[in-house]
Amino acid sequence: MAKMRASGKKSVSIKDVAKLAGVSVSSVSRYLNGGSNVSPVSQKKIAQAIETLNYRPSALARALVREINPAIAVVTINSSQLGPTQMLGGIESRARERGASITISVPETDRREDILNSLHMAADQNPLGIIFMYPDMVDENISDFFPLEGPYVMVTGQQTMGAHEVSLCDQEGGEIITRYLLSLGHKTVYHVAVPVRLEYNRRLQGWRKALENTGSYIPDPIICGWDPEDAREIGRRLALNDDVTAVFAGNDELAIGLISGLRDMGKRVPDDVSVAGFDDHPLSGFWDPGLTTIHQEFIRAGRESVDLLLRQIPQYQEDVNSVVAGESGEETGVSKKSLDIHGKLVIRNSTGAPHKEK
Amino acid sequence: MAKMRASGKKSVSIKDVAKLAGVSVSSVSRYLNGGSNVSPVSQKKIAQAIETLNYRPSALARALVREINPAIAVVTINSSQLGPTQMLGGIESRARERGASITISVPETDRREDILNSLHMAADQNPLGIIFMYPDMVDENISDFFPLEGPYVMVTGQQTMGAHEVSLCDQEGGEIITRYLLSLGHKTVYHVAVPVRLEYNRRLQGWRKALENTGSYIPDPIICGWDPEDAREIGRRLALNDDVTAVFAGNDELAIGLISGLRDMGKRVPDDVSVAGFDDHPLSGFWDPGLTTIHQEFIRAGRESVDLLLRQIPQYQEDVNSVVAGESGEETGVSKKSLDIHGKLVIRNSTGAPHKEK
DNA sequence: CTGAAAGCGCTTACAG
DNA sequence: CTGAAAGCGCTTACAG
């Protein structure tokens, strides 16, 4: 009856409890699930048996028989970036509140097969559903990934499917910050882009759109790696070009690297060149100069994605509706099935009017 | 046969495959587990049935019957901090390499009951084992948490149990950086501490030890929150005291906040006061001035903790040993059951000799 | 090489 | 209120 675990230790099962308590397994099970239809006497005995045996029901067995595993599987690429990290925190806290556990899997690479593999591994656990972060960073059509059965939610830079999606409105953010820079008097704005396929780089698209709409000169975007060191190198190069008076970097880390590179070459920020970032990294306000950026509500995005997911599951629906009405009603997008989370411009000191001609 | 999922979609089971392929469930199972003792003809038929039904075995059922769930449960407090984040990344990548999935749970608060609850939830999944990050940040005796059955590994600031433990050697690091500051000529070093119980604040203990051993004046440590804004406030206060020429902050974010506060009051770093951090945050080198700090190998700590855990499990032991000999042999501590990971002093520009008297 | 049977730890009708 | 039975989706001896 007492089985071995991987560790070699014995594990106690419901049978052990039943035997010790002198009741049937059914009764123990009933006791475990609310205690209805179990006599007070039995309850005492069972409680005691559980206590002395230190019994805990197997979540695995339960999930199997109930055909519902109260776990949310999150698959994410770029897991070490700020966005995914903060979103994971949000997912975790909201999942805990709603009684779900978290499973995470990050694909080995960005290739389709690896992602599909992660998605499948996630699905094999028979989770409540899958939260897929940044599918749009992948060089594939997003919907290709979802012949997968079961509920899911994607967190994307921009609405692409119109359902089961939390969008961070990256394009809008890119546009806003570029416009802001232009409004300061800059002739144009250069862009140092995060390494994401151009078709899915919404921040870049917003930047381009702002330039187009204002009839500004559109320089080639400069593709950067994730490492701020790459941005630093780019900053050194950009410092050589006096036409560069304003740069929008794809994220704050890159902006910081960029500023270092600019300074390496004697440029002052923002006096000689204005630099803006994206995300509002927790340290952005402490930088010298403080970084002008777009604040992204990543934690909230994570939390909302949990609610969006659970909303698809009958057993979890009732208490979700109250949440919908309460917290996120105002911003609900296309339908209750998707959500736009808008970034907010945060103006600090890394940006300013262009240097007057000497 | 085809059951409903939480989503309401049908799920295909091994029975469906067996029926469609016209073989027994046993044969399908054998096919799934290596294909030995299955005739080529059957293999074809089974393969085809799986293909057309898009069948995937239930990880849950497998885990139940095999009595081993290839998942590692990680429970962590302070999950949004740099260390835990990077370690999680390391755990994740190493777990993937070794064929294990990851479950994470973070206690709602630091209180014993919440932590115990997380630990239990983790154990209920019957995972391969539990990796517990920073149990020593908790106001409890660590070993109290482990009447839990099953394999586990703790990642701590300092060896406390002597087994199943990856230590980051925080005390040593605190000592090294304090000594470095003293070697620069500072009379003493102030400490802005992370909000961790004093008994378990190894960085602080290292700092104190260095001061004691050199007979330096030992100022009261200044307890700070996790928010760099708190450190900024402290920096402003410290700026008022001209005796403060060197400060060691409990981590880099705090050091950055501190520098901001010092500057708010007109102090120059390092000319007026030297500031050192801890961790070697990815942005530390880009700060102006670059932060002198202790580099911590968090990612490696995460990876090693996976190996340490798997080493306790018979089914995973063979290929671990090669790893032991290969990668981490040199640094193996007390035994193969625990490991010290030493931080490294990184000298940048935020520290220097004390200001000469004017 | 193959299938029927028993069992993993639990839950859920079903009869008392 | 209670227990015996069937079943969740799989695997693993056990007989052929």
UniProtKB/TrEMBL annotation, chains A, B:
Q: Any idea where the HTH cro/C1-type domain is?
A: 9-60
Q: Name one Pfam family in it.
A: LacI
Q: Where does the HTH lacI-type domain start and stop, copy by copy?
A: 12-66
GO MF annotations for this entry? DNA binding
**The keyword 4Fe-4S is assigned to this record:** no
Q: Which residues form a coiled coil?
A: none
State the InterPro entries in the record: Cro/C1-type_HTH, HTH_LacI, LacI/GalR-like_sensor, Lambda_DNA-bd_dom_sf, Peripla_BP_I
Q: Which UniProt keywords apply?
A: DNA-binding, Transcription, Transcription regulation
Q: Does the keyword DNA-binding apply?
A: yes
- PANTHER family assigned: HTH-TYPE TRANSCRIPTIONAL REGULATOR GALS, LACI-RELATED TRANSCRIPTIONAL REPRESSOR
Q: What is this protein called?
A: LacI family DNA-binding transcriptional regulator
Q: Which organism is it from?
A: Bifidobacterium imperatoris
The record lists the lineage as: Bacteria, Bacillati, Actinomycetota, Actinomycetes, Bifidobacteriales
